[in-house]
Write a structure and sequence with these properties.
heterodimer; A: alpha+beta; Heat Shock Protein 90; 5-stranded mixed sheet; 10 helices; 5 strands; 68% helix; 8% strand; B: alpha/beta; 6-stranded parallel sheet; 6 strands; 51% helix
């Protein structure tokens, strides 16, 4: 490990702390906005916007503090919405709120040292040098500067500001970086909870995988194989008929051909269910555009650049969109559907919104349960918001990798 | 008819060559990758190219891309694309240049030799051959206010066959109805869907497909 030169260390610390003041201002503004949103009941619907801003701020701080401390600060798991009820019960949002309160107060104070020290130094030195042109000038600690002696005092005051900065900024920056990191990182005890969750979803994933294998086996065994047996059987009959009564062979050839065509149609279905060919050809965006094109309700795809994800993740996302569209067509009575694909913090986010009647049955709808199961197998999260009267939003977050 | 075949599976390539030669067609070359296809077309332009969608090197949609590129290079070149699965959006890409002489069929349609040869001739003559499955994907159940709901079952059948690229005569013989009846059905369909009456042929297919995609 290389230790940077002391002057570089100081400059980094100073820059870090000065930015902290800036973030502190934003945090204070956000705090005020939150208080106003809650206090005036009518502005409550604006709260999610403020929350989104706070999350963005926290995410950027995680990055910045992480860079300063040269360690990555893990982000909270994705998947919670900005709805008021969810925010109030979300552990991560409560931690973010604690961080926000600290950042808006202590952070702002600590940051002001970084800005105040050079500013005080500059101002006092300026006054000490140019007092003859500044009648009635005083130093920043209110000593009159109307003689060279007064100017000397002002210069000393400036020097004191400078020394304060030199000695205070590095330890203050370190202390504040550690304090923020502790607040911004997910709580330690949640790792045990996460392990339990991962173990549960892993079991569910294995179960789902087993069910899937059995389904594929059944389709191939009972469907395609039987059709091919029929083909072979009919060809055998053709062989016999050709030597006895060639005219009788023709209908058998037709039967063999029909059985083979059925087998092919079934195979296409099985292949589509395992891994849709269009996904191989065109990637997730192309495949989803194709799904949207088939949809009986006008469906727009919001494309954001999404990198290629692991095949299993793309397939899961594809089936989620397919299932959500089928559901919307069957139950929503919507006029428009929007599908949005994007990447957020290493997770693939799929959002299907329809302007239908809402009130989706999350307990009994097998389609929605299917989506949940598929997504849970990847340790992802599913959120379905469907108030009576709509709109219905199905959002899933699928982590793309380790 | 002079034909170039591009299919990477040796068994299918040989089989298709054999089938077409047995029917008195001239297979000028049979290749197994998109580069060789474009080279073969450049060396000796055939009446029609029969192209598989998945080919080396990545086994995605090279064949389709090669077909689209070939039609840019030789406008009006007849191309019949074969695939193990059909995707309505691929059909759109093939039809995008509006030049006609395009076919897009499931590979297994080759088994019905007479129908396959009919499609081949239709495309070589500047017409269209869309797989019934592509048309089926376009005819999915739509919302209640869709004008398609106002069509009678017979009219939907006629619409489907029109979209596949069949002529009035073929539609009549397929559904076992008279030419006059076909004419009447088509008139009704265009009125109900609010489409301007278009002459028979490729333009009509494009109008119908465009309507179904909208």
């Amino acid at each position: 490990m290389t230790v940077p030169a002391p002057d570089r260390q100081w400059r980094d610390a100073w820059r870090f702390l000065a930015f902290t003041a800036l973030v502190g201002f934003q945090a204070m503004a956000a705090l005020l906005a939150m208080v106003v949103c809650v206090a005036m009941i009518v502005t409550l619907p604006l709260l999610p916007h403020v929350i989104r801003f706070v999350r963005g701020l926290a995410a950027r701080e995680r990055d910045r503090v992480g860079r300063y401390l040269a360690t990555a600060i893990p982000p909270p798991p994705p998947g919670t919405s900005g709805s008021v009820a969810e925010v109030a019960t979300s552990l991560h949002d409560r931690r973010d709120a604690q961080w926000l309160a600290l950042q808006g107060t202590l952070g702002l104070l600590a940051g002001s040292v970084a800005i105040g020290s050079p500013a005080g130094l500059a101002q006092n030195l300026f006054i000490a040098l140019f007092w003859p042109f500044l009648p009635g000038a005083t130093s920043t600690v209110d000593t009159p500067v109307d003689s060279w002696a007064g100017a000397g005092v002002a210069a000393l005051v400036g020097l004191a500001y400078g020394l304060l900065g030199v000695f205070l900024v590095p330890p203050l920056a370190r202390w504040w970086a550690r304090a923020s990191a502790a607040r911004l990182a997910p709580p330690r005890r949640s790792l045990t909870e996460r392990l339990a969750e991962v173990t549960a979803t892993r079991a569910a994933a294995l179960e789902a995988h087993g069910t899937e294998l059995r389904r594929i086996e059944r389709n191939l065994h009972d469907g395609t194989q039987n059709r091919l047996v029929a083909v072979v059987m009919h060809l055998g009959m053709v062989e016999r008929a050709l030597s006895r009564d060639p005219a009788a062979a023709l209908p058998m050839v037709a039967s063999a051909q029909k059985a083979a065509t059925d087998a092919l149609a079934e195979l296409r279905e099985v292949v589509r269910a395992i891994y849709p060919p269009v996904l191989v050809d065109r990637g997730l965006t192309g495949a989803v555009a194709s799904l949207a094109g088939h949809c009986a309700i006008p469906c727009a795809v919001e494309e954001h650049p999404v990198p290629r994800m692991p095949a299993a993740v793309e397939a899961a996302a594809y089936f989620v969109v397919a299932e959500a569209l089928t559901n919307a067509v069957k139950h929503s009575g919507a006029d428009r559907i929007t599908v949005s694909l994007r990447e957020e913090g290493g997770a693939l986010v799929v959002e299907v919104t329809d302007d239908g009647r809402g009130g989706a049955d999350q307990e009994h709808g097998s389609g929605l349960a299917g989506i949940r199961g598929r997504v849970a197998a990847f340790d992802g999260s599913t959120r379905i918001v469907s108030p009576p009267g709509g709109p219905t939003v199905v959002r899933v977050d699928i982590p793309a990798g380790p | 008819m002079r034909i170039v075949i591009a299919e990477d599976d040796a068994l299918l390539r040989e089989g298709l060559t054999h089938l077409l030669r047995a029917e008195g067609m001239e297979v000028t070359s049979a290749v197994d990758n998109p580069d060789d296809l474009l080279a073969a077309l450049a060396a000796d332009l055939p009446d029609i190219a029969v192209v598989d969608v998945r080919m080396p090197p990545t086994f995605r949609d090279e064949g389709l891309r090669a077909a689209v590129q070939a039609r840019k290079q030789w406008p009006g070149l007849a191309v019949l694309v074969l695939s193990a699965h059909v995707e309505e959006s691929y059909a759109t890409e093939l039809l995008a240049d509006g030049a006609g002489a395009v076919g897009y069929l499931l590979k297994e349609r080759v088994g019905k030799v007479a129908d396959f040869l009919d499609a081949l001739e239709r495309v070589a003559a500047g017409g269209t051959a869309m797989d019934p499955e592509v048309v089926g994907q376009l005819l999915v159940r739509r919302r209640s206010d869709d004008p398609l709901q106002r069509l009678t079952p017979r009219e939907r059948e006629v619409l489907g066959l029109m979209a596949e690229g069949h002529s009035n005569a073929t539609i009549g013989s397929t559904l076992v109805i008279s030419d006059g009846a076909v004419h009447k059905h088509i008139g009704n369909i265009f009125t109900k869907l609010g489409l301007p009456t278009t002459d028979a042929g490729h333009r009509r297919v494009l109008a119908v497909l465009a309507y179904l995609k909208a």
